Amino acid sequence: MKDGIHPKYGKTVVTCTCGNSFETRTVMGDTLSVEICSNCHPFYTGKQKLLDTAGRVEKFQKRYANLKAGAEAKTAKAKKA
């Protein structure tokens, strides 16, 4: 391998928003901040946790509620015909 062309591969502390932190190795720097880790991710915990930021879930449900009602009306008309 050539000298001087590869990035430094050093220890890094990764900190999650849930408070969990662990040490790993990377070329990214000394510290990393992540939003979801294996302690709080639903795949690993088996729990569904909805993080609603600024009402995004409600906004989505309102936006697509009319679509669902329209689709049901279409199927009802198709059954009558």
Describe what you observe in this structure.
The protein has a three-stranded mixed sheet with strand order 2-1-3, with no helix packed on it. β1 and β2 (21-26) form a beta hairpin. It is of the alpha+beta class and 81 residues long. It folds into two domains: 1-48, Rhinovirus 14, subunit 4 (Irregular); 50-81. The protein contains two helices and three strands; from the N terminus they run βββαα. The protein is elongated. The model has no long low-confidence stretch (mean pLDDT 80).
Give helix and strand order, one letter per element, not per position: EEEHH
> What is the CATH fold-level name of the largest domain?
Rhinovirus 14, subunit 4
* Helix/strand class: alpha+beta
Helicity level? 25-40%
Q: What's the CATH first level of the largest domain?
A: Few Secondary Structures
**DSSP strand content:** 15-25%
In the CATH hierarchy, the architecture of the largest domain is Irregular
Tally of distinct domains = 2
Q: What is the tally of beta strands?
A: 3
Q: How many helical elements?
A: 2
The biggest beta sheet, please?
A: 3 strands, mixed
| Low-confidence segments | none
Distance between the termini: 74 Å
Overall mean pLDDT: 80
**Strand ordering within the main sheet:** 2-1-3
| Net shape | elongated
Radius of gyration: 24 Å
